[in-house]
């Protein structure tokens, strides 16, 4: 597919999905998030994609919601209009939900500002890394809103309730160093270039493993956040019952015996 605001490139099983609504610093509106949702559906269904890097071509990662666009979104003031509003915005929520539900791991590579909805986006990703110039802010309280794209539900599972509540209540900006200390990002790199090099290296490491096993592991990890240890282990056992018969499992055993690097095909 071709996109207006998404630059999607696939090479060696790694999809680089760059948000490219540069004039508004990737501010989120309905048309932009609809493209994000479509791109996530595309990479989720492509056999030549094993891992996704989500990044930005703009000077910032994401400036949050495009408030100007939403102020003219057409609510007529009636009860019916307000009740229908969530359905009109469904694609915005889907853009984050589809990142979390994507079978392939998603790495967020953040540079510049990551504000409001940008935090919703990266909280749905599997791994987050950033450049030293990155800054993070849950801005909704500063503009009279409540974050509603999933960050208040997902981020506490990443950094804990204390840090999330501080971020949400203060609406202040947090530096890359602070983000690393609280566990929001796994690592901080000197600049955008080294950030992307690190993201590619990490993605290639993931892509080099058995893709079915990686995808099943993500599914188990996602499910285990809301399940008991026993239920999570049972799901893992169920996945392994299938994976034991995979061609990749046989290739792993054969390559070990032959003392060579395995070549996985996702079958």
Describe the protein in words.
Helices cover 49% and strands 14% of the residues. It is α/β, with parallel strands linked by helices. The chain has two domains: 6-207, Alpha-Beta Complex (2-enoyl-CoA Hydratase, Chain A, domain 1), CATH 3.90.226; 211-257, Lyase 2-enoyl-coa Hydratase, Chain  A, domain 2. Strands 1-2-3-4-6-9 form a six-stranded mixed beta sheet, with helices on both faces. A three-stranded mixed beta sheet has the order 5-7-8. A hairpin with a 2-residue loop joins β1 and β2 (14-19). α1 (30-45) packs parallel to α4.
List keywords for this structure.
Lyase 2-enoyl-coa Hydratase, Chain  A, domain 2; six-stranded mixed beta sheet; 267 residues; 9 strands; 2 domains; 13 helices; alpha/beta; globular; 14% strand; 2-enoyl-CoA Hydratase, Chain A, domain 1
Number of strands: 9
Distance between the termini: 25 Å
CATH class of the largest domain: Alpha Beta
Main sheet attributes: strand count, strand direction, barrel closure: 6 strands, mixed
The helix count comes to 13
Low-confidence stretches: none
> CATH homologous superfamily of the largest domain - what is it?
2-enoyl-CoA Hydratase, Chain A, domain 1
Shape annotation: globular
Report the order of strands and helices.
Answer: EEHEHHHEEHEEHHHEHEHHHH
Determine Rg (CA atoms, Å).
20 Å
In quaternary terms, these chains amount to single chain
Strand order of the largest sheet: 1-2-3-4-6-9
CATH topology of the largest domain: 2-enoyl-CoA Hydratase, Chain A, domain 1
- Percent of residues in beta strands? 5-15%
Secondary-structure-derived class: alpha/beta
CATH architecture of the largest domain: Alpha-Beta Complex
Question: What is the share of helical residues?
Answer: 40-55%
State mean pLDDT (0 to 100 scale): 91
Number of domain modules: 2
